[in-house]
């Protein structure tokens, strides 16, 4: 009852504040990813979408990873790109927060999301946190815990989740999902645990189709690919293939009573943006905290399996390790 009341009050307060103004002002943290410029183009460009026109990116704080070269090298160019769309560049997150109603935390480096998100949470501003919500399972748990402490609605997602085909499968249009095989590129980033930086796209596709309830995981690895097998509590099996060598492709196969159905691939950022904007207006996250945390638990368990030469690892064991890490992080912010 207490949780239902909190959700209702959050919905009413966010909705009243945002519906009462002509344009809802968005701030972006992190101009070290193409997501930032893509969202700015969609929001501040020449779209004739009436819903999109209710929003505008008005400010951006550009930083940003300081150690991932492919990220920090983009910042100067992306600053100039968003300025062409009338976006003000701020010198701090605090300055940005004074100018906006909602926040897109886009920083490419998941390791600094908790630190940056804490500033947003303390301001009370509703926030979308781009993938990965944190670099590790522990950070992901800590971010959700701190968001709840400050009563700030958040959610995080890959655009792959909202491929129209994946949503049809998710919503049961082909019948019950009996199992899935999903794939995406897996670009190894030494600063992040495996899959957390990029392979998360394919893992999110897997969870979009299968839902929560995985109980154990094992993994086989080579220099060209990684394959992770998850067994769900109801006996269903889902796999994720992280492609390290070969074409950068996204997709999969869902097994249903109607046969093997192709999963959806990448279809741009507009499908995700629509979900973000709806979230900003309602304060209701389209993905549960539990599902996002289970995605990170799945990745954590897969890494533990790899370290143990493919041994089956339970999700419970992986979660306990992540929770212990989260508790240490949370103590630093109390």
UniProtKB/TrEMBL annotation:
<dbReference type="InterPro" id="IPR036291">
    <property type="entry name" value="NAD(P)-bd_dom_sf"/>
</dbReference>
<dbReference type="GO" id="GO:0000166">
    <property type="term" value="F:nucleotide binding"/>
</dbReference>
<protein>
    <submittedName>
        <fullName>Dehydrogenase</fullName>
    </submittedName>
</protein>
<dbReference type="InterPro" id="IPR000683">
    <property type="entry name" value="Gfo/Idh/MocA-like_OxRdtase_N"/>
</dbReference>
<dbReference type="InterPro" id="IPR050463">
    <property type="entry name" value="Gfo/Idh/MocA_oxidrdct_glycsds"/>
</dbReference>
<dbReference type="Pfam" id="PF01408">
    <property type="entry name" value="GFO_IDH_MocA"/>
</dbReference>
């Amino acid at each position: 009852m207490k949780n239902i009341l909190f959700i209702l009050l959050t919905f009413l307060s966010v909705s009243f504040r945002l519906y009462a103004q002509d344009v809802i002002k968005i701030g972006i943290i992190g101009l070290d990813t193409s997501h930032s410029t893509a969202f700015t183009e969609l929001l501040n460009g020449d779209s004739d979408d009436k819903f999109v026109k209710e929003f505008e990116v008005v400010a951006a704080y550009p930083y940003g990873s300081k150690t991932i070269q492919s990220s920090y090298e983009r910042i100067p160019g992306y600053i100039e790109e968003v300025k062409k769309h009338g976006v003000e560049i701020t010198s701090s997150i605090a300055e940005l927060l004074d100018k906006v109603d909602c926040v897109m935390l886009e920083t490419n480096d998941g390791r600094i999301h908790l630190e940056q998100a804490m500033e947003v949470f303390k301001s009370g501003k509703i926030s979308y946190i781009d993938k990965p919500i944190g670099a590790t399972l522990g950070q992901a748990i800590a971010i959700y815990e701190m968001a709840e402490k400050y009563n700030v609605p958040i959610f995080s997602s890959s655009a792959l989740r909202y491929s129209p085909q994946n949503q049809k499968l998710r919503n049961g249009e082909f019948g019950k999902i009996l199992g899935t095989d999903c794939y995406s590129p897996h670009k190894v980033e030494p600063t992040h645990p495996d899959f957390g930086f990029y392979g998360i796209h394919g893992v999110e596709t897997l969870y979009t189709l299968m839902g929560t309830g995985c109980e154990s995981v094992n993994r086989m690895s080579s220099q060209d690919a990684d394959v992770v097998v998850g067994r769900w509590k109801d006996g269903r099996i889902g796999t994720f293939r992280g492609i390290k060598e070969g074409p950068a492709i996204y997709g999969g196969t869902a097994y249903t009573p109607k046969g093997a159905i192709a999963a959806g691939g990448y279809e741009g950022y507009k499908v995700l943006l629509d979900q973000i904007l709806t979230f900003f207006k309602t304060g209701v996250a389209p993905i549960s905290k539990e599902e996002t945390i289970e995605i990170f638990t799945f990745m954590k368990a897969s890494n533990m399996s790899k370290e143990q030469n493919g041994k089956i690892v339970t999700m419970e064991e992986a979660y306990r390790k992540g929770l212990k890490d989260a508790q240490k992080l949370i103590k630093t912010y109390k």
